[in-house]
Amino acid sequence: MKALLILFVLMNLDKLLKTAHCTETQDQVLSITPKTQEQVDILKTVSTQYETALWQPVSPHYIKEDTQVHLFVPANSSETVKDLLQRHAITHEVLLANPNELIEMQTRNDSTDPRSSSTFYERYHSLEDIYFWINRTKQDNPDTVKVILIGSSFEKRPLYVLKLSLNNRPNKKAMWIDCGIHAREWISPAFCLWFVQYSLSFYQSNKDIANILDNMDVYVLPVLNPDGYHYTWTTNRMWRKNRSTNLSTKCIGVDLNRNFDANWCTEGASDQPCTEIYCGAFPESEPETQAVADFLRSHKDIVQIYFSIHSYSQMLLFPFSCTLEETENHSELLEMVQEAAQKIQRHYRNIYKYGSGAKTIYLAPGGSDDWAYNLGIKYSFTFELQDRGSYGFLLPPSHISKACNEALLAVKTIALKVVEKTKALTTPA
Ligand code: 0X9
Ligand code: ZN
Asked: Rounded CA gap, 338 and 14, in Å?
């Protein structure tokens, strides 16, 4: 009997040990609001010197008094980080007690589950699935959808753009939408897929989308940063940059939204490869940036509107972000995003901030929107989709439809305005 008992204990030793530590720590996302300069400095140290991932703001440089900081703290740093906060009387709230559960929910492949009521577009998809979807969309719509290979990523993944051309009118203008420049912002690629599906399904029945697509072709790049996106699915859900390597450093990745040639690597970007806002070795040093820039350069005479889709924080932004100066059409752009934000509030009861990037969030040079604007695409925007920090980058799949419909309303509002302005300019009085 005694021997049996010993055998049982030995066989279950790992389980017994685990339950003894009933407060086993796990990854968490904390919300912290520093109240003094000393607390700001401590938080800067925590987010740079400990194994954490800063969600908001994007770089420790922007941490300031009385402004919320959202910090992802992995289980292995939890105790040290919390101790440090406590020692400096910095209070915190737990924003997400179990991000791993949310990550699991987002990556679960429930497409084959008959009880699941969500459609393909109400789920997040792996890069492989998205490539498959691109191909299927082209096959299902041979007369209206073309797939254009505009280049490849650092790890040699293809960069595909879908061209939606719903009728053959001559001299059509165009609109560009890119998604997934930042790897961890999963709602962004989900939006590109949503937009394509919506356009193809409602062209016949919705007069607004018909009016837009009758006058413009649309170029959609669903995943601008495929290597980073893939990495968030396989290895690190919090990854932001691309995955390029450089002999001069151990650190991987360039922030592609600091790598465009718009006041490149000035205040608001970093020349340090280990930071999240590393601008790269030179403007357009990254193959992803170069592919987008080359394509837009060669289509600059037809592309009238540029949209880049990000998350999170619910903002409709326009240039400049690389300087505090105003664009020459500042008031026109302001009017457009204001109308879009008002419509979102009316239809979806959700608040979006709006304005020029530098004045609304921070100085951030080297961004695609500013570069596109300087190229001559005068209607250039960056949208930050849902939410405002409840789930952050881990927005549950059940929120995809509302987040995408809101953004779609903003895209439609702005595109319709541009179509009307263009008609007014080209139609003789
Ligand atoms: O910092 C960014 O690149 C964007 N915010 S995010 O949290 N998604 O990283 C804002 C981009 C605004 N536009 C430019 N900086 N040009
Ligand atoms: Zn982003």
From this structure: 58
Q: Which of 311, 359, 363, 310 is nearest to 334 (CA)?
A: 359
Q: Which ligand is nearest to the CA of 181?
A: 2
Determine if ligand 1 sits within 6 Å of the CB of residue 125.
no
The answer to whether residue 20 scores a pLDDT higher than 50 is: no
Q: What is the pLDDT of residues 27-60, one digit of tens each?
A: 999 999 999 999 999 999 999 989 899 999 999 9
Q: Which residues contact 267 (CB under 8 A, 6 or more apart)?
A: 363, 365
Task: Look up tokens 């961890």; give the residue.
Answer: 184
Q: Which pTM was predicted? A: 0.93
Report the pLDDT value the prediction gives residue 17, as an integer from 0 to 100. Answer: 44
SS3 319: coil
3-state class of 315 per DSSP?
A: strand
- CA-proximal residue: ligand 1, atom 1 (nearest): 364
5 pLDDT band (50/70/90 cuts)? low
CA 73 to chain centre: 21
* Phi/psi at 175 (5° precision): -130, 145
Query: Which one-letter amino acid corresponds to residue 277?
Result: I
SS3 146: strand
Which stretch of DSSP H or E encloses residue 381? strand 379-385
369 in ligand 1 pocket by Cβ < 6 Å? Answer: yes
Looking at residue 118, its pLDDT comes to: 84
Q: For residue 319, what are its two tokens?
A: 């240039």
Q: What is the dihedral of CA 229, 230, 231, 236, to 10 degrees?
A: 70
Total length of the chain: 429
Q: Is 288 in the pocket of ligand 1 (CB under 6 A)?
A: no
- Residues 6 or more apart in contact with residue 300 via CB below 8 angstroms: 375, 376, 377
Instruction: Compute, in degrees rounded to 10, the torsion defined by CA atoms 178, 180, 182, 186.
Output: 140
One DSSP character per residue, 58-116 reads: SSGGG--TTS-EEEEE-HHHHHHHHHHHHHTT--EEEEES-HHHHHHHHH---TT-TT-
